[in-house]
């Protein structure tokens, strides 16, 4: 096992982080010096980002919470060592601790100005890159929002047109249905009126016949009923004969069309035989 791998395993040990979190001043300084030595020797290549974030959280906490210059200097040097060993540390600092730069001003003129300036330079360089990236991002957001607004307005315009067309068709369909419903109601009312008028007429006829039967003498009643039966039989026979004649008329009409077609064909053939140039089969 190489010393770099061994150093990475030591840095990823949870015991080391427990020792760093301790409130004891001397223990914290020793552990920070130990971490700095391992980082300078083996780097942070094999260290997971989560472990680096744990170290940064505790170191930044010591920088912002303690007033001891010795702990502040040791924490600053350790953060600088981490940032020099791995470029992603600078990105993590600016991403996780946005307001760190103003808080570091409290350590000015505390005896470790070079280390503090180096840490501020890391934050400044990354902040400039982040600012430029944010400007690009803001420009992209403006372009995307403008394009999306344009597309949304187009979609809304098409939706309004489709909605207007749908509403118009719905109103037309509703009006047609209402008209059809009204026509059906009128038709039913007419049929009911016709049925009622027919029933009334039949009732009047029956009442009329009953009145006649009531005023007839007893000897003439049989003769009157025979006459009514004869009239009914005559009516039934006339209806039946009319139906039969209509059937014959249909067949006669078809026969007449066939005869007419035969006559036309015969005439055309006669003309063609007599004078072919004058024949017209149109």
Biggest β-sheet description: none
**What is the N-to-C order of secondary-structure elements (H for helix, E for strand)?**
HHHHHHHHH
Report the uncertain regions. none
Helix fraction by DSSP (H/I, runs of at least 4): over 70%
**Beta-strand segment tally:** 0
| SS-based class | mainly alpha
Tell me the strand percentage band: under 5%
Rounded to the nearest angstrom, the distance between the terminal CA atoms is 111 Å
**What sort of overall outline do the alpha carbons produce when their principal axes are compared?**
elongated
Rg measurement, Å: 56 Å
Mean of residue pLDDT values: 80
Q: Count up the helices.
A: 9
How do you describe this structure in short?
The chain is 86% helix and 0% strand. The protein is an all-alpha fold and 282 residues long. The mean pLDDT is 80.
């Amino acid at each position: 096992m190489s010393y770099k791998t061994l150093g990475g395993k030591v840095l990823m040990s949870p015991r080391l982080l427990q020792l760093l979190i301790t409130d004891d001043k001397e223990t914290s300084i020793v552990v920070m010096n130990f971490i700095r030595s391992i980082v300078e020797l083996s780097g942070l290549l094999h260290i997971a980002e989560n472990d680096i974030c744990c170290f940064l959280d505790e170191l930044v906490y010591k920088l912002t919470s303690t007033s001891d210059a010795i702990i502040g200097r040791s924490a600053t040097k350790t953060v600088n060592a981490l940032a020099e060993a791995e470029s992603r540390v600078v990105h993590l600092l600016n991403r996780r601790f946005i307001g760190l730069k103003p808080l570091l001003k409290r350590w000015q003129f505390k005896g470790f100005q070079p280390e503090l300036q180096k840490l501020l330079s890391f934050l400044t360089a990354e902040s400039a890159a982040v600012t430029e990236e944010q400007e690009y991002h803001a420009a992209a957001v403006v372009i995307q929002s403008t394009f999306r607004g344009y597309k949304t307005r187009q979609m809304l315009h098409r939706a309004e047109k489709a909605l207007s067309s749908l509403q118009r068709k719905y109103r037309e369909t509703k009006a047609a249905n209402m008209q059809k419903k009204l026509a059906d109601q009128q038709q039913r009312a007419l049929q009911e009126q016709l049925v009622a008028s027919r029933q009334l007429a039949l009732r009047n006829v029956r009442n009329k016949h009953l009145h006649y039967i009531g005023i007839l003498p007893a000897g003439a009643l049989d003769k009157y009923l025979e006459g009514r039966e004869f009239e009914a039989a005559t009516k039934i026979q006339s209806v039946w004969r009319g139906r039969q004649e209509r059937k014959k008329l249909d067949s006669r009409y078809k026969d007449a069309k066939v005869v007419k077609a035969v006559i036309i064909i015969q005439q055309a053939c006669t003309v063609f035989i007599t004078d072919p140039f004058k024949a017209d089969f149109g």
